[in-house]
């Protein structure tokens, strides 16, 4: 018996199917939790953000548009936004989003051609670890702390131009190392 | 000049794909993107990186209690997710149940009123029969026979006690829109309504208690006419019989 694919499960969740929800949870809870923990660096806050992410999956499954991309990317984008909003709340910084409009979420995530296997993500993780400390720092602050380039410049005491240059360089290196064009 | 602008936009694409570009530059780039295929291709390539970064953290399972906690919270979360048709079905079922209950209540009420009418009628008939029996046993009671074709019976009259009961045998049934009405007639010929009645189809005789606003001694006779259902203020129909006191 073949397992139902992610999109079918999301469709069932939209119809109120609790078992489908739990199947998606079992598939992606570890990835969601890893991302929220990476962003929040606090087990309790990360657990709450993970819970909030899956409650959003439950209540907003009907808003998922399959043509916009794979389910895990959609789910992890929600997780990232949820964790970053919590991070900003804890540090009294303005939140990134207030409405959590899925279309708005999709504006910052990849297109539908981007699918991934675990080995590819692991390779990307290793690629990030292999960046120089300066390059890795701007990626970490931008993607996992939600800081804008100006905020990064202010935080690190670098000129804004330096932040932009290092961010471009870091991205180009990731593309090279990760084997992307 | 255009190349310089393009270069600025292109340099901002990595930050844009990571969602970290400042607001003003983001707005400018989003205006530029639809007009520049090169920048769109660059963005697609960068987005593969940002996509991958979502997945790049090594998986780490949350505490097992979280799964159970989520399960407990699902029913309340489901309220906002439930398809509207469930509400419609619930409402329809509730509406149907209310209609059925109302119909049953109305039917029960109608039945109860019918039973009460029957009970009142039976009580009245019983009282009339008991009065008639008591009068037959009373020495001062007059028994005035009815003189009419195909109808027999008598008026039991006690003027002293102002009590009278009319017993009629073989009184024909009337249509639904007609009723029998008894009239007391005084010496001046004035008629006073004394009773309205219909024969009981299950009994061969009809007994009627005559009610008088005054002493029965003030009247000289009793007549019975056929009147419209509900009775008349004065006799208007054909006379069935008359008994002189």
Topology diagram in text:
The complex is a heterodimer of chains A (181) and B (245).
Chain A (H helix, E strand, L loop, with lengths): L5 H9 L3 H23 L2 H18 L10 H20 L11 H5 L11 H12 L3 H12 L4 H8 L3 H19 L3
Helix pairs in contact in A: 1-2, 2-3, 2-4, 3-4, 6-9, 7-9, 8-9
Chain B lengths: L1 H16 L5 H10 L4 H19 L8 H15 L5 H53 L5 E4 L6 E7 L4 E7 L8 E8 L5 E7 L7 E6 L10 E8 L10 E6 L1
Antiparallel strand pairs in B: 1-2, 2-3, 3-6, 4-5, 4-7, 7-8
Helix pairs in contact in B: 1-2, 1-3
Descriptors for this entry?
heterodimer; A: 181 residues; mainly alpha; Rna Polymerase Sigma Factor, Chain: A; Arc Repressor Mutant, subunit A; 9 helices; globular; B: 245 residues; alpha+beta; Immunoglobulin-like; four-stranded antiparallel sheet; 5 helices; 8 strands
Low-pLDDT segments of chain A: 94-115
Number of discrete helical segments of chain B: 5
Which geometry of chain B do the CA atoms define? rod-shaped
Report the sheet-strand fraction of chain A: under 5%
Kindly provide the name of the CATH class of the largest domain in chain A: Mainly Alpha
Oligomer: heterodimer
Look at the structure and give the mean pLDDT of chain A: 83
Domain count of chain A: 2
CATH topology of the largest domain in chain A: Rna Polymerase Sigma Factor, Chain: A
Structural class, from secondary structure content of chain B?
A: alpha+beta
The biggest sheet of chain B, with number of strands, parallel, antiparallel or mixed sense and barrel status, is: 4 strands, antiparallel
Q: What topology, given as strand order, has the largest sheet of chain B?
A: 1-2-3-6
What is the C-level CATH assignment of the domain at 142-244 in chain B?
Mainly Beta
String of helices and strands of chain A: HHHHHHHHH
Sum up the overall morphology of chain A in one term. Answer: globular
CATH superfamily of the largest domain in chain A: RNA polymerase sigma factor, region 2, helix turn helix motif
Backbone CA Rg of chain A? 17 Å
Low-confidence stretches of chain B: 79-87
